[in-house]
């Protein structure tokens, strides 16, 4: 009996890991076809359910198709999802509540929602961290709110890095805009 108990205790971590891997295997993935290559993000609905539903709704509506990465800061992040190449802002749905305390940190190659200084203002714009930006996490942010991470890049990290390295400048009222537009040609749910 004692042997069986020990065996069960030793097998528990393995079974938990397999269960977690299986759960993660079911997480939705979105393919961002960009003018510089493809990026696949795996979303985390168990950690940021409202944010994931919001992002998927924009994908399903075709909102991201034809938008650009309009803010690119090397060593920090690449931001997109709100503007066309001529810097026209696309209409959005209502803002969503901030889910920055979901337990996912703003680490390199994670995807998070952009927002204004008001915590519950995220709509369509997102950013991909190109560095570990722990100062954007809720527990470290100056405003105490942080930015909601809702997934991570699982393919196309090299594309993210290429985008982060493009030349930028001012365009209209914005800074850090790529000189040559980096366009999201299409965003598609692939899993």
Write the layout of secondary structure elements.
Blueprint (H helix, E strand, L loop, with lengths): L1 H24 L3 E6 L2 E7 L5 H13 L5 E7 L3 E8 L25 E4 L12 E4 L19 E7 L1 H8 L3 E4 L2 E5 L4 E7 L2
Antiparallel strand pairs: 1-2, 1-10, 2-7, 3-4, 3-10, 4-6, 5-6, 5-7, 8-9
Catalytic activity: [protein]-peptidylproline (omega=180) = [protein]-peptidylproline (omega=0)
Organism: Sutterella parvirubra YIT 11816
EC number: 5.2.1.8
Can you walk me through this structure?
The chain is α+β, with helices and mostly antiparallel strands and 191 residues long. Helix content is 24%, strand content 31%. The protein has three helices and ten strands; from the N terminus they run αββαβββββαβββ. It catalyses: [protein]-peptidylproline (omega=180) = [protein]-peptidylproline (omega=0).
